[in-house]
Amino acid sequence: MAKYAFFLGCIAPLRYPGIEKSTREVCKALDIELVDLDDASCCPAPGVIRAFNKKTWLAAAARNLALAEQKGLPIMTICNGCYGTLFDAAHELNGNPEALKEVNEVLKEIGMEYKGTTEVRHFAEVLYNEIGVEKIKEKVTKPLEYQVATFYGCHFLKPSAIKNLDDPENPHILDDLVEATGAKSMPRQQKMLCCGAGGGLKAAFGDVAMKFTQTNLENMQASGAKYIIDVCPFCHLQFDGSQKDLGFNMPVLHLSQLYGLAMGMSEQDLGLSAHITPVVL
Prior knowledge:
Blueprint: E1 2-7, H1 11-15, H2 17-29, E2 32-36, H3 46-50, H4 54-71, E3 75-77, H5 80-93, H6 97-107, E4 120-122, H7 123-131, H8 133-139, E5 147-151, H9 160-163, H10 173-179, E6 184-185, H11 201-204, H12 206-223, E7 227-230, H13 233-246, E8 252-254, H14 255-262
Parallel strand pairs: 1-2, 1-3, 3-4, 5-6, 5-7, 7-8
């Protein structure tokens, strides 16, 4: 049985508890044991902290990595931003004695140390590379016939030179994972366009962020998709919370929620009532 320290991040538990619930249930069905990472903090978001003080960003990330290290487990995230931060921090610190020494000078002030051993995985990466599409198909009890727009987001595949998960410009991992449920991933233009929320764009230039979101929604609608499937609660929030103002009404589901539906979970367990854009199944 695969075993991971479960890193929740900020947005899922605060805004979309159904993403957490469905992830736990789906992992249980697929023989993935999730161990709660008690006392974890924000990852922290790179656009918020790293842009101003890299040392603080790295130390905060190292603290989360150290919590998983104490349990002797790799981290699994359900958020692209958390994945980006923790993966990048681990890549910089693991096997880099000088960087590790510097960050531990900060951590020792709170009685902690990071030895540089934690590996970081994304939920979708674990499903694709360690569980496999065929095993997932075996667990589907309610095949879905949805036409969907898969949304990879910016930080799942990039920086591709160190993640090496898929072709960053023409990926297929998420499409394959979605179609394991019976749903169809609809081809569309500008598939890899940012949702508009990342990198502080939404906070600093909200009108520009909304243009990104609108373009994505227009392309999704033109493709014939009826649902949006994402792998990041921040992208999820951007699409879910912006549609009313833009005149769209396309339900948004995290990949774990889509799997939850395909495995027979109830709408209540999936937390669909917390969504701003109504989810009509």
